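task queued by scheduler; priority normal; single chain, no ligands, no partner chains; default sampling; output format set to structure tokens
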Amino acid sequence: MADRTHSDRVNFGKLREVIQPPNLIEIQISSYLDFLQKGVPEKQRKPQGLEAVFREVFPILSYDERLTLEYVSYNLGEPKNSELECLREGITYSVPLYVKLRLREEDFIKDEDIYMGEIPMVTERGSFIINGAERVVVSQLHRSPGIAFEVTPHPNGKPLHSFRIIPDRGTWLEVQFDNNDLLYVYLDRRRRRRKFLITTLLRAVGYSSDLDLLNLFYEIKELRVSKALDMENVSTLVLVEDAIDAQKGVVLARAFEPLTKAIVRTFEKHDITTLRVIDTSVDEGAIIRALKKDPTRNEEEALKEIYKRLRPGEPPTTANARALLKRLFFDPKRYDLGRVGRYKINQKLALKADLEQRILASADIVAATKYLVRLKRGVGVVDDIDHLGSRRVRTVGELLANQCRVGLSRTERLVRERMTMYDQSVDSITPQKLTNPKALTTVIRDFFARSQLSQFMDQINPLAEVTHKRRLSALGPGGLNRERAGFEVRDVHPSHYGRICPIETPEGPNIGLINSLSTYARVNEFGFIETPYRVAKDGRVTDKIEYLTADQEEGKIIAQANAEIDDRGHFVGKVTVRQDGNFLEVSAGEVHMMDVSPKQVISIAAGMIPFLEHDDANRALMGANMQRQGVPLLQAESPFVGTGIEERVARDSKIVVVAEEAGIVASVDAKRIVVTKDGELPRNLRNDPKN
């Protein structure tokens, strides 16, 4: 029988590989290293991960604002034990964390380095060793912060348009048309009776007068009465202010009332020559209806009205009401859109706000209301919550940063109370005495030990390990609940193409809620999944590669990887393409992009199934899952038929030993392989083999 431990592969593929798949466990390692920023000098650290958490929680001021505890920097030591020692001895592979805090009281400054405990360190395999067991933190796929426009049918069949502004943390703001076409604001999803008009909210955030509000949504025009009499239809025109007979002081027509020919003739009789009007045809009078029903007339009244709605039974004062609104939307400690939320709002509403502006601005509410009004008239797009532009990935680093934020914010009150205790003798006080160093490490340890997303690593075979690290779960804290998740969330969506595998998912209650990243997919800085495409120009495919998110892909005409092209890269004849989930046939010049590989659609596990395209989808799903359950042989054999991706799995799983650079093996023993350029052992190893 022929030796099957090694074979030279013959590739029968007709397509050349344009790019290699990225490192398969990069999503785990790079995310955690970005969270720690271990090798980055203190002054050059970006405001992300652990650095961002410290900057958010500190400085902490004492109740009388005399003492301040400030954060200066942190540094991480080296692991005390190697990975192997941790596995053998049942301990955690971690690095010590030292935080430099500064206590300040007027001219008195005291700096101190505090040991805050141990932080688990990621291994080169992308896993964590916790109490001697290898664990993996699965990335979470959750609803992206930002803005979402929706349409829900009323029981009588009428479609009700609405939008929600969803922050990373803080109060959701929902604005919806009711059955009478009035725009109401809802701040509490459980108590939907506590609602108030959109104009009340806009007055409270700075647009206090009727004129301010009208200027936001309409163009105020001067109209001559003689011209109004000649117009066929004046019913869409509305008066901006009361029309008063100057001589008698009688009100001829109220503000916000639509004009009629009879009213215009009355004005003519009373020698009124010009009118200030607005044209409500631009929004079908949505804002005017709200203004007519609005019980408030200025900012102070609006603030009190909102306070009465949200805190019924408590006496409203302007100061309390203003503080409540600030707490809800304009306090960075309580409300945070996140860079992602700000990016999504800018993208949807065509705003240019800075990504670091993480609280809500009055301009956001105005722009969203304008878009909603246009949407009701049929202009604009309703968002699909299952589209991958509306869902993002929370990787290890972000999940852990959220936990650290919880742990450190708990210490805030403790620090303030200790500051009050030590207030008399400032000399005896030190940052060490004020803080609780265990606060951070307790939540981190808790996260790795108890979180639903921190799982014991699947170590059946190398494929099982790699797949576990590339898994995306919609479950977990802040995610979906498997009992309540409907069919739509679990289903395959056109935006999954090249980003999430349509085949590999568990059978049973978790179907569609736990997915796997596609072979070439990567996660960008905002947490959205990108997939690579070759750029096509004037009917010719180039080797230029562009990574696109699901949003950026909208409207693009994309050819398949196996579309027929000649030697110079020109498409041959008509091209079968896809655009926004539809399949079309277009001429070569219309194509924008082309897939980089046929295996771009599927995950690593599905990509290891030979002749996958001849397989039934259900059997392929079972095959992809069952490959992870195969026990490796003591003497490895090469398969008769492979797909060419096996080597990448073995290499990236770090199960096989890979030389760091090319060379010749000089010596091998049970503990060490020496590779040198010329195949000769270095002199120090030759003289002392145990060195």
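post-processing summary
- The first strand starts at residue 60 and ends at 61.
- The chain has a mean pLDDT of 89.
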